[in-house]
Amino acid sequence: MQENKKGNVGFSAVSLLLISGFIACLVALVNSITAPVIAEHGVESLKENIALIFAGSEDFDDITGTVTETSGVEAIYKVKSATGGEDNYCVHTSTAGYGGAVELLVGFNCDGQIAGVAVLSADSETPGVGQKITEKQFLNGFKGLSYNDEGAKVDGVTGATVSSKAALSGVNSACVAIDKILNGEEEEVSA
Amino acid sequence: MKRRGISWFAKEGLLGNNPVLVQLLGLCSVLAVSTSMSNAIGMGVAATVVLICSNLLISLLRKFIPEQVRIAAYIVVISGFVTAVQLLIKAYFPAIDKSLGIFIPLIVVNCIVLARAEAFASKNKPAAALLDGLFMGIGYTAALLAVSFIRELFGNGTVFGISVFGGSYPKVLLLTMPAGAFICLACVVAAVRYFTMKGRSKK
């Protein structure tokens, strides 16, 4: 009996290993088919959102690595202007909202003025309340503000204080990142 | 084991043993994704595909899987299929992926899939297990659709995103929120119970 049990454990382990191996192969196969398609979607949706802010602009470079990390900022893109002027910037931010992360794409003109804000994801905000931050009425409030405007005020959405604040703090972190890019990084003075 | 036709599986999955309305399994996902009918369809189809595939594979492997590690084996099989389905949705239906987000991976812990694996697929032939998966999946989708229809129609004034009552309709916001999901689901379960019981007592 004792030996029989031992043999069983070995058999169990091997069969579990075989099943896991088989499933792993299956997932790897599906992944190899879908990975390029998924990557393409990411770039495409980014392009669409950039075009929402800077109409006609298609070319952009990821310049996230050129400055030190800013909290709340996921990525920074340099967007080639469609009209041939100076380059514009888009900052992808992610801040905590009511139900999860609120992701924004904040567009800045070359001189640091906010050209527009697009919501990449606010799916975990309350439908009909917090998700109102995706509406133009709210987002247009950011337009025309400059990254160094101190005390600029933006009207939040009634009943959606947390979601509004998440968007606000996203735009604020984007401003910090743009400050680093436009003015160069200053070494932090330790107190 | 007695022979059972397709109609038996259909009846069992849709009404007699509906995974959501009668077995009360997988309620978490029903409550969470029933805010809109398009979400319900997406979630229902994804869960059905996973159910069919896992039921089929587990039934094929039922003599090979040792009893002591069967639950672990089922979960490995289920999570493998869920990951595959999630990747496919991400690649080919990005809109659904955006709205369902976290709920697709959570199919792994949806008790319906594990319950059908343990209670049915591990004891029956592959063809029967496949049919069981298909109709349990359809039953799940139907329940999801019923709940999401009520929630979307009254909570948002739309059906599949198309406005029904016009712009001035006062939305019942409660229904789009989690509390409304509980109330709505309870009413649907009660209604289905009422009508099935009524039918039985007449006979």
Report the count of strand segments of chain A. Answer: 5
Unreliable spans of chain A: none
Radius of gyration of chain A: 23 Å
Main beta-sheet strand count, sense and barrel state of chain A: 5 strands, antiparallel
Quaternary class:
heterodimer
Order of SSEs of chain A, N→C? HEEEEEHH
Give Rg of chain B in angstroms. Answer: 18 Å
Tally of helical segments of chain B = 9
Structure characterization notes:
- The complex is a heterodimer of chains A (191) and B (203).
- Chain A is globular.
- Chain A has one domain (1-191).
- The mean pLDDT of chain A is 82.
- Chain A contains three helices and five strands.
- Chain A has helices spanning 2-53, 136-139, 161-183; strands at residues 60-62, 73-79, 88-96, 101-108, 114-121.
- By secondary structure, chain A is α+β, with helices and mostly antiparallel strands.
- By secondary structure, chain B is mostly helical.
- Chain B has one domain (6-202).
- Chain B has a two-stranded antiparallel ribbon.
- Chain B is globular, with a radius of gyration of 18 Å.
- The chains are: A alpha+beta (191), B mainly alpha (203).
- The interface between A and B is medium-sized, with 29 and 31 residues.
